[in-house]
């Protein structure tokens, strides 16, 4: 089993491939080659991550020492099933989005910036995977910074006024968040003397009685710092601008992957570095629960008030991230496992939604929701895929959105907070209120469909194939919900 | 081996239906007809072969996972009688059909559904699991619907409509009963019910009522018989023969199971059955006398004979200790009725085949020269009327004895009336049969003088002949059948022989009296009251009952219409309520958004000023200079006031404006950073204190 034993080094290999290949791209003059490199490296990463996943599922979690230095001094990668699965998700979704971008990106950004864009994407995904894999908090911080800058880059790449405005806002808030995160690390380091999560976990058990307030402060700093980056409700203000003004490929990446990277980091710090038993005692989870619930409702309310379709979907991300925080805040294993499952479900669904909406905006040149009345006749496949995503968001059985809502409801009942089920229900209804009108006005209504020519604006199926793959992934994630949730609850231990 | 045969009996007709359809489809009708006859013959032979095995013990087949609950078939002696008579009659009717249908359209469809109906009917009789029974029952209703509407003319569709409507309604009621039954007993197996139902209180009457309605529709119990006089004349003769001879028996079978197993001879329930049976008997035979269509007469006669069987079933429960005679009577009559009613329908069918006419006013005198047909019809008539030497006599005697036994046990005016009703309806039977027989076979008519003799084909007449032979044979030698019934009686918990003497002086005397009464009624009522001379001086039968109270038109249809309208009104109300609620809510939301936020004084000031602008200067002023100045002034003031109004308008804004402003503010960088700081501060403060 040479190949499987080698799988231990694959996480590092993925990072190296992505980061090194990134910097080759600006040197290449031909855009086709750049696209090839980008997609090829992402596919390699995807394949390697799958092999890692298989290895982890078979042999259990492992620790990979970089440069064979032992832990407190060297940097470690800790790969449990959770990390491996998230790695698979990130590489595959990014791969599909890149595939889609091959046909559409040139219509949104100037072609001379294309190599730069693909550089940023590779760096971004590499950094996100670094955040997921790394067991060293400071190492994570470095990756957080890299990913923040890279994601600002893919927003600003369009070079328009609104992009620059949005990116600046994003940059400033992200930097504030990074600052808090760094301060949190400093506090934690000062009482535990370690940066490695495994070691912090050992030390913090003793330190919690000596410095209870320091732990509290550091937890708050982590939560708020990472909360800004992952658009926790009242701190989400950068998100709608950034996501709606960016090219739709960027929006898909940002909304489905970048937000999730920080959520995973927060989960890792809370439940791996500090430990489940300790965090359960802290009031921080209640705070997360309240903010998550608020986000679930207010995100949808804001989405209803929007007029541009991309802003609607961006606000929907705020609501969906609210679900993830809601799951974390329930302070039960099932809750966190479902939160991780929702990371999965939301990643595939939101990527699909942004890409379909991107296709609609690209072919019609319009942005407002009311301009998309009757679009279902002109672009039946695209709106059909959008409908699938919308159904998942609203929570129709089998689809991932339903699975996570159902399990969150179960988890909140078993956590002794049945009142929260009402919040899930209200949020679902609100979701329906802004997704269904798009679908209904798109497909039905006599005056909407008048003068529309069937399939007149449909993109070629070849170009929509990645989105179709995503829709299959949505169904697949919905179908394998049980094993995934089990895997995540295993990975947390 | 027996189990395989049992399954074969059930499956063969269904498979045969498909193969026959394909055969006929390829326009090889001869092969299809032959194939169908072979199939039914084979099934009949297999059933006959099983007789020995069934006598020794019941055959049970259980196949799990079919229809979720599993397919549980059982063949004991009680079920065997029903299955055997079904297969026997079906075999003969199939032979008959090949002749009858020669000039019909859609023969292929007819045969396919005919065979499917056979399969499902056998399924009904074999089922031990009540849910299986229900399923076969429903399949049978639907497949036989295709037989009823076979002509596809207006009348057939009307009849089919009421047939299928009542079948579906009855099916649903039956299913409701089965649900309740399963809910309270936890089992679907019929043989487990006697034990489980014993502890149940008043609820079992509800359940049994529901089941009785469900089965009673098929058994044409009053007042659920409405479909029957319409559906039977509509269907082709072989189909009405099996509808009347066999399909009614599925309802009877269900009621027997209900009474004997599920209700375990409950006294109250049996009393209801007895009264229902007597009503059926009397009403059916009474109304039959008025009809002019032969098939409708026969249909009413079927209804009356279903009443005889129900009386037997009811007496089974009433005569607790001595119920044997009632069971024998009921089961014997099941057999007999199947035989003679099929025979009569076949006879009527032969007439219709030639003349395409069924009204006795039109066809009178038709059979005068057709000796064979006349003999066959006569056998049927005498059997129905209960003439000694024919099978009807045996079962009627048994039933009468059971009634007399009950009268003996519980002396009371009720049973005296019951006996009178019994005699009277037997007399009516003879009267309406004489009406047909005399009109068709004895009266003279110039139009028919034997010219159609060649049309009466062997294929149609031979099955009828076979049945007549059987009728006479079991009428003369009743003990062969009684011997067969013995096993069936054991299924109802009675053991031992029946000591019965049929050809005694007393019985013959009673029969003679009934016959005499029948003849008197025929002569005194049917021939005089129901027959009028028309303009040409011909004697024609009239039907005054046509304008009488009609259950279908005067009760069921208005009731259905009202019910439908009531329900639709109800739902309309709910619907409207919902829509109003949603509209009102959204109206409130919009109103809330447009609430103007500013104190009243601005509002009042604005109104006052606006009113001021519109006002014209007061009165005519003579001085021109003054007029000019005033005009200038007023223009100035007006514009000034307008400005003020505009300013005030700016001050007044609605809730949605506020929300929009807040939204815009929230999107600014300043606000973002502020909210970030506030949240951080709050979180830290909350966490630490």
Task: Describe the 3D structure.
The complex is a heterodimer of chains A (493) and B (689). Chain A has 493 residues and is mainly alpha-helical. Chain A has a domain at 283-493. Chain A is 78% helix and 2% strand. Chain A has 22 helices and two strands. In chain A, strands 1-2 form a two-stranded antiparallel ribbon. Chain B is elongated, with a radius of gyration of 39 Å. Chain B has 689 residues and is mainly alpha-helical. In chain B, the strands form three sheets. A two-stranded antiparallel sheet of chain B has the order 1-2. Chain B has a two-stranded antiparallel ribbon with strand order 3-4. Helix content of chain B is 76%, strand content 3%. Classes of the chains: A mainly alpha (493), B mainly alpha (689). The interface between A and B is medium-sized, with 26 and 17 residues.
- The low-confidence runs of chain B, each spanning 5 or more residues with pLDDT under 50, are none
Question: Based on helices, strands and strand pairing, what is the structural class of chain A?
Answer: mainly alpha
Of all chain pairs, the largest interface belongs to: A-B, 26 and 17 residues
Helical proportion of chain B, percent range? over 70%
